[in-house]
Amino acid sequence: MSECAQTIYEQFGGSRAMAMIGGKAIASESALVIHFKGCRKVNMVKIDYDYGMDFYGMTFYRFSGVESREVKALEGVYAEDLRGIFETETGLYLSL
Which residues are registered as beta bridge partners of 27? Predict the structure, then answer.
């Protein structure tokens, strides 16, 4: 996992958050894609880091089979807001 993806993973809540949502993380150079269970509206989120602006982008998808549909995209997200936005959009909690 790249250093950037590892940082996003830790800011999102790490292995504890993944356990809470049944999530699986896939890393790229400057993004983290998380597949999760328990939400009918969306089941995948991509978190991108924008080096120039020092913000994150969050894109929520509904993935079924081999097809994915973008449900909502957010830009200009601060690191401390990642968890709260995820919980608001999905209704899933990342901690007890």
Answer: 32
Distance of alpha carbon 67 from alpha carbon 2, whole angstroms: 27
Residue type, 14: G
Q: Distance (Å, rounded) from C-alpha 70 to C-alpha 2? A: 25
Separation of alpha carbons 28 and 76, rounded Å = 20
Q: Which residues contact 52 (CB under 8 A, 6 or more apart)?
A: none
Domain ranges, ordered by start, for the chain: 3-90
Beta bridge partners, 69, equal: 62
Residue of 46, 35, 49, 8 whose CA lies nearest to 92? 35
List the structure tokens of 70. Answer: 């973008």
Among the listed residues 79, 88, 57, the one whose alpha carbon sits nearest the alpha carbon of residue 8: 79
Cβ proximity of 31 and 46 under 8 Å? yes
Q: What pLDDT is attached to residue 58?
A: 97
Tell me the pTM: 0.91
